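okkk here we go again. third time trying to get the pyridoxal-5'-phosphate bound version out, last two times i messed up the smiles copy paste (missing a bracket lol). double checked this time i swear
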Amino acid sequence: MSTTAIQTKHNFSAGPAILPKEVFAEAAQACLNFNNTGLSLLEMSHRGADFVAVMDEALALVREILSLPDNYQVLFVGGGASSQFFNVPMNLLNDGETAAYVNTGTWASNAIKEAQAYGKIEVVASSESDQFRHVPKGYPIPADARYLHLTSNNTIYGTQLFDWPETNVPIVCDMSSDIFSRPVPIERFGMIYAGAQKNMGPAGVTLVIVREDMLGKVNRHIPTMLDYRTHIKKGSMYNTPPVFPIYVSMLTMRWVKAQGGLDAMEARNFAKAQALYTEIDANPLFHGTTATEDRSWMNATFVLSDDSLNDAFLADCKAAGIVGLKGHRSVGGFRASMYNALELGSVHALVEVMQTFARKHG
Ligand SMILES: *Cc1c(COP(=O)(O)O)cnc(C)c1O
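finally!!
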């Protein structure tokens, strides 16, 4: 199967998002005939040896790529990152106990709203008053907090955390849009979760990583399917797991590893972000929308100084094969998402359109 037949665009979509070409090709083949079994991956038992091997490799790759210590458990669950907004406090926080949250955007706000049903939620910092253009720093964290909830990359507003707060309180982090994009100091985290569809795989599965001592401390009833311990005990096979999203995530992790792991991803993502932000700063027609020091390497948000030119710019992008640039409906402007799989060449293509556009309209 030719890979050029399936991908011909520079895809800057925020999610579901670009994955490596070779992953799409191998996933397509697995849908037709998996491992020469004469069966599609989609029609075989999740308890059979072929899929069990996929699950085992997927779990092992998460451990290996993130260098997880033994006291961390890895699980794949359904419901999207949005279900973790209630699942986290349900599993980690008793009524009356405190959890600290930092509000850095829409997803963080959703997490705060859901958590309020389970304990005392203290919003210790927020950048809402400047439309989430920066990431708050240096805020106090209550020593008795069970955890500090952070969003490592704010997909909609285009900010990212580059410094993890100094605290003994375990960090619980929504890494949906920058998982596997750079190394992280794993010992600081009590829990990490990520919907697959930004940087890891297709929509339909959520990765959860949890330190064992975080669990077993609440006394409320937790429905079996929502109790992390259920899925840990059963190796994410308590019920039928989302087999295809897990398989494609596994292929993507193989790719991350083959590229050189998180150090290589960081270098690759830094080069892309550098190329685009350099152009945004140099080009008189375009402006970045976030604080310079908090600019996301994953989602670059920017506007035209004259927004009557927006449609003309998008048309030029489209003509150059560049898609997915329209900003989130809640903020407008443009957003270039540059997840792991996006090639530097795609950023160069975008920069070239911006330069030509400035010559035409400047
Ligand atoms: C996309 C996104 C979500 C929502 O993920 P779903 O899987 O659609 O629920 C949550 N948090 C962040 C940071 C995101 O980028």
